Amino acid sequence: MKTSELLNYTEQLLDAPRxxxxxxxxxxxxxxxxxxxxxxxxxxxLALIEAAIEVNADAILVHHGWFWKNEDMRILGTKRKRxxxxxxxxxxxxxxxLPLDAHTSxxxxxxxxxxxxxxxxxxxGEQNIAAYGYLPDAVxxxxxxxxxxxxxxxxxxxxxxxxxxxxxxxxxTGAAQDYLAQAVAVGADVFITGEAxxxxxxxxxxxxxxxxxxxxxxxxxxxxxxxxxxxAERFGVRHQFIEIDNPV
Length: 248
Ligand SMILES: [Zn+2]
Description:
By secondary structure, the protein is α/β, with parallel strands linked by helices.
């Protein structure tokens, strides 16, 4: 599979150019011209690169790549170590950030909905990356917490009355705690995201909208896996998702 073909296809699939983002989307570091083995992971950390080398990866596909807006542009320290190892093995680094949150079937929010059994009704927030919908079976907050724990394999942080009954659910994976106010505006009874900030708790208490932080990493594991599997099926490349555990 030609790297350039895979990139062109993915860019169109995710409609990547339409997003204003905090990092470049698509190819971030150029490697081999052909891809036989594609590794996916949440973050392009040193541990993921090392694991990808172990399985002879030609490309690494991630949600959190490199070269973030406002980061130090120099190649020093840990950044040099990661980049040097990647380039020594001629591995392509491909990253999709907001386009992968937003995609309506392969994206993080659509895939989190699959994991939790949520039905999507609409999208909201900056560039329409956050979703709202409902649970087919009426549940209360403590039941949803249990469901999330079972699906994601970790205990979420839950703010709100455990007996609160839930009709409309809003969610946005990752560090979207600042979308809580917008979730309130779309009439959500509960907002699920990855991380919490100190002030999120007060806003949840004062608006009466329940808040769940289910893990930044835990909520963003599924989009990149779905995209990797889709590309593997479409182009006949080998694909493997590598989980590098992260408690946040
Ligand atoms: Zn993220």
